[in-house]
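idk why but the lab printer keeps eating my pages so im just putting this in chat instead. protein + zinc ion:
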Amino acid sequence: MSIARDLYQLQEVDTALEANLQAQKKVSAQIGESQLVLKAKTKLAEEQKNLETLTAQQKSTEWEIDDLTNKIKETEKKLYGGKIFNSKELGSLQQETAELKKRRSVFDDKSLGLMDELEALRKAIDSTKDELAKLQTLWQMQQKQFVVELMQLKAAQAVNETNRQQIAALIDADTLFTYQELKKRKGLAVAKVEQGICQGCRITLPNTDLQRARSGGVVRCSSCGRIIFLA
Ligand SMILES: [Zn+2]
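predcted complex ->
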């Protein structure tokens, strides 16, 4: 095995290690609370609060109606009870009854309006509950998937790390140092050579360099400085 080949393999493992780390970060970021679930929960809480308010309004409206109905009964009893003969008194009782009925009809309308609102709100609550249940099921499934993905990535990373140690052990310290320095500066330290052309900078390499590389030496591209690898 040539050192260039070892270095190239080291580079491939390093690339895999970095890609794996990025993938782990991406998956980790997706583990946690779901914004969509939180939003649906807030919506449901608001709708339930509105339901309480409207129900209370409806009850007090019903009480008003009952109260007025009792008062109307009383005045009508007086009116038709046959005990009052004074026409002025009868007239004022009639007026009182009419006014009470007028007030009650206002509350009746209010009650009907509230009933419509309550019905619409109950439907909205049912649909929000359905939506929330669906979102929670989906979120739980996704979370399980993310946890599995993360475990798989970590297992693959452990293999990458072992591979790296094994390959690095084959390379002498000076060459390893050169590799690290080049990696820091250029991103990729090793460039493949295809048909005599350095794939790092696209320049045609002189034959002498190619021959030295073929015989197993560590040769660097005269243009970009990368270590060349003849595949
Ligand atoms: Zn080059």
